[in-house]
Amino acid sequence: MITRPAGSAQSDSFTHRVLPYDGMDQYLDGVLPFLLDGVDAGDRVVAVCGTGRETLLRDALGPAAPNVEFPDPATWYAHPPRTLADCLHDAADAARSGYRLRVLGEPVWATRSPIEVAEWQRTEAVTNLALRGTGASIMCPYAAALPAGVVAAARRTHPETVHGARAVTNPGFMDPWAYCERHDGEPLPEPPPDADTFKIDLPDLYWLRAYVGEYARRTPLPEEDLQRLLVAVTEIVTNALRHGEPPIVLRMWTDASGGVPAFVCEVGDAGRWPPGTGYGLVPPRPGDAASVGRFGLWAVRLLCSTVQIRLGDGGSVVRLRFALPPSADTNGA
Asked: Where is the Histidine kinase/HSP90-like ATPase domain (predicted)?
């Protein structure tokens, strides 16, 4: 169960709206007022969309188009926690400078694996916590042609729905912590029978890293990700040694069942995490002295492709996933 950390109430100064649309007329009816209001107000206005949408918006914006940034969507949406951290940094920087960050963001859903889709959906929910009080404004268009589950999740992760130039309270919106609790309540697939299994009895992190590194080098995991893995697994095992209960067990395997080939490293123990950790879902505020010492789990999320955490009566499990090259052979390790 996720326990809500103290001081996590949302602020009305941040807006996060979903724009359901069916066709380009509905899209423009919602998007253009949002962008033009930002340009008129002197906001930093960012539109993250594909090439076709960019051409359409530039034409429709006319003289206002040069005042709108169009970053590369593949770079912007490369990694959920990194995107969230960058957005928070930009929002805080804008607020300090006396203006507002305004983002039109339309994630690519069709090419995502189920694990990636779930991670982006949770990021949509956590955005409401991470950017509270920044004064930023985010609008997320969702096409009617998307899978029904994706559109339904959007209504649960956005406090308001846009109809043309009008925004209304979204009755389907869920408290972000409740959404994350439900998301992380779904059981993980069992590790494969041939997963490499190592019981951790002593806090010898040097030999642990050597063991993990030796196994990982027999997989297609790139060297850069191997170094991230060693940092991440050190943090998770340290957390288990400090707060968990024996037995502490580390498992590793390669997996293609999630839609994307991945190297998986899992650390499980028989203990329960202390309340108020929040799973490291919310990034620390830039320049916030109160955030010092709370970077561990959040940093792990930045290092890995995906982090899956499950808590229960049987103990705690942290599963670190690192995407492998698409052509990787996942049967060799």
From this structure: 207-322
